[in-house]
Each structure stands twice: as structure tokens, then as C-alpha cells.
Specification:
The protein has 215 residues and is of the alpha/beta class. Helix content is 49%, strand content 12%.
């Protein structure tokens, strides 16, 4: 079965993904996926199981950007191409951050063999609370986690990290010291880890906040 999720509410989408795929599944990102990999993703089996659980993320790049998948597809269109694989035996979720406006994407969703859902975020992250958590983490990681636990069930972890990055850049502009540089470097690693693994993003964020005071 193929599911497609898109929209700005990453929290709800992440919850739906875990509900369908559980905690153990394969992740492939459009930035690194090769067009030649597509047939094996939808039809290929592994030595461990005939039925796979797969998450495909960010197939459609942001406007003006490209990806390895787009480059290797050439003149072909991803959603037109996978119409051939609608009867895949695997559980596959496509998570689009940047929704394709192409007719092929809309035809894919209307095929009758795909379940799709758009989740838009109703509220924005409270910047003052995020900045308060960031400031607390510099001296007291435990206190930062206490503050984080008060808001994380209502907030988007990806937007939260985006605001952390904003605050870290401001700190670096004021004081270009070793700790400020280290925080920016580790934030970059955190962003990559959140996008490329299936770990709970809040666990990764908590680990990051706990370490800041020791750098």
C-alpha cells in the first residue's frame, strides 16, 4: 500500500508514519536516491522479509533547487513512473515537504490505489519559549529539558530547531568564540540526523540541549 503525506504539520505526519510503519523501517531521501533504485524499492525483496516498510522523503525539491533523484530521472517524471508500481506488496509512505504541482502528482493521488492526506499546522512555535530553552541550555541542560517538556507536545520539532539555529547565529554574530562555533556545528549535525533517521526528533533535540553546557 502507498500513502502520501504532505503539509506543514510535521508533528502529525510523523505520528501517522509511526502508526503505519512502526519504529523499524527503511528511509530514502530524494537528495540521495537514484532513479535506477525505484523499481527495487517498490518491488524488490530483502533476505529478511518479502514485505518491506519504506519511507520516501522529499521527492520533490524546493522551487529552484534540484536533487540527485531529479537529475538521474532526466526527462522522466517520478510520479508518472511509479504509476507502474501501484500494486507494490510493500508498505510505502511518501512524505513531501515541497508539494509537486504537476498534473502527474495529482493523477497519482487520484489513481484510487493511493491514500493521501494533507496536514497543515494550526499554530506557530512560540519564539520566546524556544529562546528561553536555548538560553537555559547554555548553563543548565536539565532545566532546558524541563522547559522543553512543557511545550514539545504542541510544537513542531523541525520548526523548533530552525528557531534554535536563528538564535545560535545571533549568538555567534555577537561572540565568535569556540562554544558559539561548536553549537552551530552540532546544530547542523542535528538537522541532518533528524532528516535522515527515524529516531524520535525530540530525543535528538534533548540530547543536543543536554550537551551545550559542557562545550
Amino acid at each position: 500500500m502507498i500513502h502520501v503525506f504532505y503539509g506543514s504539520d510535521r508533528v502529525r505526519i510523523s505520528a501517522e508514519i509511526r502508526k503505519i510503519l512502526g519504529d523499524d523501517y527503511e528511509i530514502f531521501n530524494g537528495e540521495n536516491l537514484n532513479a535506477d533504485d525505484i523499481p527495487s524499492l517498490f518491488l524488490g525483496r530483502t533476505i529478511f522479509s518479502d514485505k518491506r516498510k519504506i519511507l520516501l522523503k522529499d521527492i520533490t525539491p524546493a522551487r529552484g533547487e534540484s536533487s540527485k533523484l531529479v537529475t538521474t530521472l532526466g526527462d522522466r517524471d517520478f510520479y508518472e513512473m511509479i504509476m507502474t508500481y501501484l500494486d507494490t506488496p510493500h508498505d510505502i509512505i511518501i512524505w513531501e515537504t515541497n508539494t509537486s504541482q504537476k498534473k502527474t502528482f495529482k493523477d497519482f493521488l487520484r489513481s484510487g490505489k493511493v491514500k493521501s492526506q494533507k496536514y497543515d499546522q494550526a499554530s506557530q512555535v512560540d519564539m520566546r519559549k524556544v529562546f528561553g530553552i536555548y538560553d537555559a541550555a547554555w548553563t543548565d541542560g536539565t532545566r532546558a529539558l524541563e522547559l522543553l517538556n512543557e511545550i514539545k507536545n504542541q510544537e513542531d520539532p523541525y520548526m523548533f530547531v530552525g528557531l534554535l539555529s536563528t538564535q545560535a547565529i545571533k549568538s555567534y554574530d555577537r561572540h565568535q568564540e569556540r562554544k558559539e562555533k561548536r553549537v552551530l556545528k552540532e546544530l547542523s549535525k542535528l538537522d541532518i540526523a533528524m532528516k535522515s533517521t527515524n529516531y524520535d526528533p525530540w530525543v535528538l533535540i534533548s540530547s543536543f540541549l543536554l550537551q551545550i553546557s559542557s562545550w
